[in-house]
Amino acid sequence: MKTCPQCxxxxxxxxxxxxxxDGALLVKAAGDEAPTQMIGSALSPTAPMxxxxxxxxxxxxxxxxxxxxxxxxxxxxxxxxxxxxDGPIDLVYVPGWVSHIEYGWEQPLVAQFFRRLASFSRLILxxxxxxxxxxxxxxxxxxxxxxxxxxxxxxxxxxxxxAVFGMSEGGNMxxxxxxxxxxxxxxxxxxxxxxxxxxxxxxxxxPNSEARQQFYDAIEKEWGGPVGIESIAPSVxxxxxxxxxxxxxxxxxxxxxxxxxxxxxNTLIDVRDVLPAIRVPTLVMHRIDDRDASIEEGRYVAARxxxxxxxxxxxxxxLIYAGDQDSxxxxxxxxxxxxxxxxxxxxxxxxVLWVEADGAKSSNALEPILAIARRExxxxxxxxxxxxxxxxxxxxxxxxxxxxxxxxxxxxRATTQAGFQxxxxxxxxxxxxxxxxxxxxxxxxxxxxxxxxxxxxxVVSNSTRDLVSGSGLTFQSKDxxxxxxLAGVAELYLVQCESGFMHR
Length: 504
Description:
Layout lengths: L1 E2 L6 E2 L15 E2 L22 H14 L5 E5 L2 E8 L5 E5 L13 H11 L3 E5 L16 H14 L5 E6 L1 H12 L4 E7 L17 H14 L6 H4 L7 H14 L2 H13 L13 E6 L7 H10 L4 E5 L11 H13 L9 E12 L4 H17 L3 E2 L8 E6 L2 H17 L3 E14 L2 E3 L1 H10 L7 E4 H4 L8 E4 L14 E6 L2 E2 L3
Parallel strand pairs: 6-7, 6-8, 8-9, 9-10, 10-11, 15-17
Antiparallel strand pairs: 1-2, 1-3, 4-5, 5-7, 12-14, 12-15, 13-14, 15-16, 17-19, 18-19, 19-20
Helix pairs in contact: 1-2, 3-4, 5-8, 11-12
């Protein structure tokens, strides 16, 4: 145990050299080291940011103590992670586009940001698959694979529930995680997030396709330099040391080709339909003059998450540790300190698969079809739902939409080989789960959408298709919604499985 001679705070972490609050040299309870005064204002939660002092403190702290990098296994992929701090709440920080958890510590602003978070939490950092020190993969990562990675890291560090803090693109996955796994999520925190990354008439603040193409061109031509720094971190864009660090940070985080592929994948993400399904305490932070993501995007997100708190911050930096860190960190600390404890879980976001048997009126034909559907659902980590239903269909729920769609393809192939025809539909939305019983609007919509499918077809709603960017799944628009439409479903798509579009 080490105790700060200034504020008397005690730390269990024997590796710490300096107090996170007062910056004083920590001493053991026995007092075998003489205290040395450091610059307290740089680490004070309420004092204005002094960049010079901040860098001096951060450099001294990180020169002596840096968290150890370890690996968690997520399927066949190794995910690099670090843990620091001994606060009462576990806080998983989800980085933006790319990251490198070890080289980040070379930048004093980053070191200061993470150490302050660790002063009131047990902070869990990780590199997303395909970036930094995590395994480089040949396939683009999907949002559900990245959720699996977060769960793998949480399990590796013994975290049953955590607050999830997502910045920029990391916020998309953080929002989906909170909606899908509310039982693992104490709270959701976002900074500089967006719900969609390309312009839409109903979402006019996102960049248009021309602007995204300019970004792609910059990656191809300028990767290795400080790509995008003028728009994401204008307050430090003229700082030569920061510019050099940012260029190196990006190079170490991923290759030019992978960076471009990830940028293209992020452009396709659309989590608008996820927002109303988030039922955990939520804090949305956004800088008013953010040059990369409009403040209107933060307002949009906060307005659609039930009970979310929006904090609008001064500044134009999109990068979280550029500009005024203190307003961000104080907001996070205050929000977490005000949490009242675990919330009741009554609904979760899930993808529902409904499979119907066509032309199988007798039980002799129906039972083999339902048996195939059950087998494939369990294989793809789904859960066969106990629902009130007629005898020609089966429902299963999945925590990942891509797995659900691949399950539907497997069911279609297997039943066709057995000499039967099925039709299937998938929708992602809120489900109410009580024991083995499943109910809710998502289940009802999936069942209704199956009526829009022809024999042998698999159809999905737009809410499901929008979440499988990077999966390699392809779709074709299907104009067959009922004349009056279906609440919560804007478009319908045919799934293309390996053997082509799943219809006769």
